[in-house]
Design goal:
Layout: E1 6-8, E2 14-15, E3 20-25, H1 28-35, H2 41-48, H3 52-65, H4 67-87, E4 95-99, E5 102-106, E6 114-115, E7 118-126, E8 128-132, E9 135-140, E10 143-147, H5 151-154, H6 161-173, H7 179-191, H8 209-228
Antiparallel strand pairs: 1-4, 2-8, 3-5, 3-7, 4-5, 6-7, 8-9, 9-10
Helix pairs in contact: 1-4, 3-4, 7-8
Length: about 230
């Protein structure tokens, strides 16, 4: 289905009231190397006895020094990941993102988590999702997880845009029709410069602050209206 290590489903830009999960391939480099016989038994045993951070670094250096090994590792990850998708009947429409050895998707049935000696572990679970300009925004249990935005930029939005997104997600989760009124009032105050200064820091990157955020508000408004048609 997907032959790239990194992939985002542009056709799935939002999802509310769902069962979104992230499954990671456990000890991916070691498991894939063993499954496809990419390394000799001595090297594999040494890697098994190496702490995770050091092991990842060692395998990374091996990939740097050997294109053949690197290509085989990448193909092994893609192949194993695809088998996980196939055995669990996960369609492309259900996939939100692929991050190398991690898969984020809308889970609709029980998951078979083991492919030969490779095990997939559920790492995170959320209920709603937005994709905006390459930034993945996941909501669950009253908190937001962001992927694809630098931490130093994200810290600038803790009280501003993050707070606004939390409110939108919480209202969409319960199909609160007052969300339209909330967005309208918020944007009116935004236009009139009546909000605290931190709301005007541009998202997701530094730029023409006020105008950049208007693009975000327009995107969210379209998403909300589109989703509300199905209520």
């Amino acid at each position: 289905m997907i032959d790239k290590l990194l992939w985002t489903n542009e056709n799935n830009s939002y999802m509310f009231r769902s069962n979104i999960v992230e499954y990671d391939m456990q000890s991916a480099s070691l498991a894939v190397s063993e499954r496809f016989n990419l390394l000799d038994t001595v090297t594999l045993e040494q890697l098994r006895n190496t702490p995770k951070q050091e092991r990842v670094k060692k395998v990374g250096l091996m990939q740097r020094d050997s294109k053949e090994f690197s290509d085989a590792m990448i193909q092994g990850i893609i192949t194993t990941r695809q088998e996980f998708l196939d055995i669990n009947h996960i369609d492309e429409d259900d996939i939100l993102c692929l991050h190398s050895d991690a898969i984020i998707f809308d889970m609709k049935s029980n998951i078979k988590s083991k492919i030969d000696n490779v095990e997939f572990i559920k790492k995170h679970q959320w209920s709603s999702y937005l994709l905006y300009k390459g930034v993945e925004i996941y909501y669950g249990d009253g908190a937001i997880t962001y992927k694809g935005i630098p931490k130093q930029i994200l810290q600038m939005h803790t009280l501003g845009i993050n707070k606004y997104l939390l409110k939108i997600f919480s209202m969409m989760e319960v199909c609160d029709e007052n969300v339209i009124s909330y967005m309208t009032k918020f944007q009116k105050r935004y236009f009139e410069d009546k909000l605290p200064e931190y709301f005007y820091t541009s998202f997701p990157k530094v730029g023409a602050q006020k105008m950049e955020n208007l693009n975000l508000f327009a995107f969210i408004a379209n998403v909300v209206l589109s989703d509300m048609r199905e209520w």
